[in-house]
Amino acid sequence: MPIGKLDHYSVRTLDVEASRKFYTEVMGFTEGYRPPFNFPGVWLYNGGQYPDTTGVVHIVGVDLNNPEGLKEYLGDRDLSTLNGTGTVDHMAFRADNLRDMRERLKRANIAYRERTVPSMNLHQVFFEDPNQVTIELNYVAAEVAAAA
């Protein structure tokens, strides 16, 4: 069986609301259908909704007062491992409208760094979500001049 496209990634967090706010207000995803799991969380979509897609980011909430539902479904994790991307360096998305994203990041007071990849016509923007997961957005390099 050949592997298809990336379906989604999940972020396990102690602060579901901060993650929901970041991924909706900064990244522009929309909150949508999520099965009735026995632990808190949010499924975020980019475009379509369930049942056509399963979402692009799944926020998995850790309920310290009732951790059993999450432990039973996804297993236990040491809380000290819930920051950053661990051995995964970053998540990357194709994007457009660099000017708008710069404005969103500034409004949210999120530090970011940019670079243009030599000989690829690709401009990258890197920043972190509230859980210190690194996000990379890839734009056509011509957007740099248009966004100035």
Brief overview, please?
This protein has 148 residues and is an alpha/beta fold.
Chart the SSEs and their pairings.
Blueprint: E1 9-13, H1 16-26, E2 30-32, E3 41-45, E4 57-61, H2 68-74, E5 91-94, H3 98-107, E6 113-117, E7 122-128, E8 134-140, H4 143-147
Parallel strand pairs: 1-4, 5-8
Antiparallel strand pairs: 2-3, 3-4, 6-7, 7-8
Quickly list its features.
148 residues; alpha/beta; 2,3-Dihydroxybiphenyl 1,2-Dioxygenase, domain 1; 2 domains; 4-stranded mixed beta sheet; 22% helix; 28% strand
Distance between the termini: 45 Å
Alpha plus pi helix count: 4
* Mean pLDDT level: 89
Helix/strand structural class: alpha/beta
Describe, in plain words, how this protein is organized in 3D.
- By secondary structure, this protein is an alpha/beta fold.
- The chain folds into two domains: 9-81, no CATH class; 91-147, Roll (2,3-Dihydroxybiphenyl 1,2-Dioxygenase, domain 1).
- The chain contains four helices and eight strands, in the order βαβββαβαβββα.
- Strands 1-4-3-2 form a four-stranded mixed β-sheet, with helices on one face. It has a four-stranded mixed β-sheet with strand order 5-8-7-6, with no helix packed on it.
- The radius of gyration is 17 Å and the shape is elongated.
- The mean pLDDT is 89.
